[in-house]
Write a structure and sequence with these properties.
Blueprint: E1 4-9, H1 18-31, E2 35-39, H2 41-44, H3 64-74, E3 78-84, H4 92-99, E4 110-115, H5 123-135, E5 140-144, H6 150-153, H7 163-193
Parallel strand pairs: 1-2, 1-3, 3-4, 4-5
The protein binds flavin mononucleotide.
């Protein structure tokens, strides 16, 4: 089943490194025959949260980047969070982006691809992210895809230094994400028909 998978990248930092990992995942998702939406908080440049999408009143002007993201997320079957670890939690740009929306995530799985410059691969941030994603209605799959030393693992185009190891890791992760995404897509389809 071909799926639409949105990849949410969390860093807006000058010289950000995780973009390499995010680009790798975008290519991996496409190589499996899915549509990949790459969501970069720098490109969407959302303000600090004033209103969730659902809080706009009928007739009220919605900023175009907010409605564009609403449509992308609503159209998605699954999400991949590509998140750094900032002070043992997720970067504020990713939290802010997630907080603008709510129903858009419902009954769709998410996968956490966490990373850091050091040796722990961002797993502490991943643990806090699990609670947030559950609350958004997009529970995270069991598998994590941690990347320690992100600055050395990929080049600027997202090509991994150790291609075979990354193929195996990302296949395990994406196999599981696809399983949940397909099951939940079918279940949402049945629900619509009722
Ligand atoms: C504000 C800030 C907080 C950080 N906190 C952590 C941390 O808690 N654990 C960790 O392993 N690395 C931490 N780092 C280092 C990051 O893992 C590293 O800079 C990484 O490249 C950040 O991702 P980015 O380049 O995509 O922004 C921190 C970096 C910043 C800028």
């Amino acid at each position: 089943m071909s799926l639409t998978i949105s990849i949410l990248y969390g860093s807006t930092r000058d010289g950000r490194m995780g973009i390499r990992f995010a680009r790798y995942l975008e290519q991996a998702v496409k190589a499996r025959g899915h549509k990949a939406n790459f969501i970069d908080p720098l490109e969407f440049d959302l303000p600090l949260l004033r209103k969730r999408y659902s809080d706009y009143q009928p007739g009220e002007k919605i900023p175009s980047n907010v409605s564009k993201l609403h449509n992308i997320l609503l159209d998605s079957d699954a999400f991949i969070m590509v998140s750094a670890e900032y002070n043992h939690t997720m970067p504020p740009a990713l939290t802010n982006l997630l907080d603008h929306f709510y129903v858009e995530y419902a009954k769709k799985p998410s996968g956490i691809a966490c990373y850091s410059g050091g040796q722990f691969g961002g797993v502490r941030a991943a643990m806090t992210m699990r609670a947030i994603l559950g609350e958004l209605g997009s529970p995270s799959i069991q598998r994590l895809l941690p990347c320690p030393g992100v600055q050395d693992a990929f080049d600027e185009n997202g090509t991994p230094k150790d291609a075979a190891a990354w193929k195996k890791r990302s296949d395990d992760f994406l196999d599981q994400l696809e399983w949940y995404a397909e099951a939940l897509k079918a279940a949402r389809g049945k629900e619509k028909k009722k």
